[in-house]
Design a protein that fits this description.
- The protein is of the alpha/beta class.
- The chain is 43% helix and 18% strand.
- α1 crosses α4, α2 packs across α3 and α5 packs across α10.
- The longest helix has 25 residues.
- The protein is globular.
């Protein structure tokens, strides 16, 4: 077993076809098939269910794939850190970001970072807190920026807290709820709610106010731009941070909803931004530089809003 074979298995899982996977890695299909067969022989188990019409890994194949992705990520991380050892003149950075930090905080920090380190190839992956935690565990990203409440208290994570961001429900400017006074949270039940996947602790707080067993958006989406477009073109109500909505509020496109049973200072609608890393895993110099940029922009935004 070697890393080359593990890369072939990962490609097979990604493309779900021997032919497409072989083409993607510039290998002939017979050679690619022999590589997978050799891996199966070396491990003493079948990795692919060849009797099935649809592509499917065996249970052992799924297990090997999980470890393969971690080993490949570790190998890439080692090469990446070695390449950056003498300065940020080469290498790559991969990190994750939640939908709301992706609106203002992270783009501004990324702009500063690439201005200072243009040679670093940077990828930031956007997702909800659950997807981000999976990518972090599998070492596909070095750190993530998101609401950190899900990660605080978990011994496998280290959390560096940023400023909390006030959140709010919002609708289009001419929405039926826009001019109503003394709104209660239950008013939302008459309209679709569009938002990201909400962490359990926030769902519970909102559900308790509503007197419902749970609180979930009618439509879940990890892309805030899509959420905002849906709200502007329908009677849906969205949930976001004030920071992410500032430009649209200034333009008069959206209306922020106030509820008498959830005061604006209530922490139920505040997002506790944080930078989350895995305990026991060091960050590359590029990752550390990006974190420093995020911390600097976090303070800059605070000063700008005071």
């Amino acid at each position: 077993m070697d890393l080359r074979q593990l890369r072939h298995l990962a490609a097979l899982a990604d493309y779900r076809s021997f032919g497409r996977a072989a083409e993607a890695i510039n290998l002939s299909q017979p050679a690619f098939s022999r590589s997978i067969q050799t891996l199966e022989r070396d491990l003493g188990c079948e990795l692919v269910e060849r009797s099935s019409r649809e592509f499917r890994l065996t249970g052992q194949g799924e297990l090997v794939l999980q470890h393969a992705r971690r080993l490949l990520a570790g190998s890439q991380a080692l090469q990446n850190e070695l390449s950056q050892y003498n300065g940020l003149t080469v290498g790559e950075l991969q990190f994750g970001c939640g939908p709301y930090p992706a609106q203002v905080l992270v783009p501004e920090a990324l702009a500063d970072f690439i201005q200072a380190h243009p040679a670093i190839r940077t990828r930031f992956h956007q997702g909800d807190w659950q997807q981000l935690s999976l990518w972090l565990r599998e070492q596909q990203i070095e750190f993530l920026v998101a609401d950190a409440r899900y990660f605080i208290g978990d011994p496998q994570y280290h959390v560096q807290l940023l400023r909390t961001r006030a959140g709010c429900f919002f609708c289009r400017a001419d929405h039926p709820l826009a001019n109503r006074e003394n709104l209660k949270l239950r008013s939302l039940l008459d309209y679709p709610i569009v938002g990201t996947r909400i962490p359990p602790m926030i769902r519970k707080i909102l559900a308790d106010v509503l007197g419902e067993p749970d609180f979930n958006p009618s439509v879940e989406c990890a892309q805030f731009d899509a959420i905002q477009r849906v709200v502007l073109r329908s009677d849906a109500v969205g949930l976001a941070t004030l920071e992410a909505l500032r430009d649209q509020v200034d333009q008069g496109l959206i209306h922020l909803l106030d509820f008498i049973d959830i005061p604006p200072e209530d922490p139920a609608l505040h997002l506790s931004y944080g930078i989350v890393t895995r305990v026991g895993y060091s960050m590359t110099p590029a990752a550390r530089a990006m974190v420093e940029a995020i911390l600097a922009v976090d303070q800059r935004l605070l000063a700008a809003n005071q």
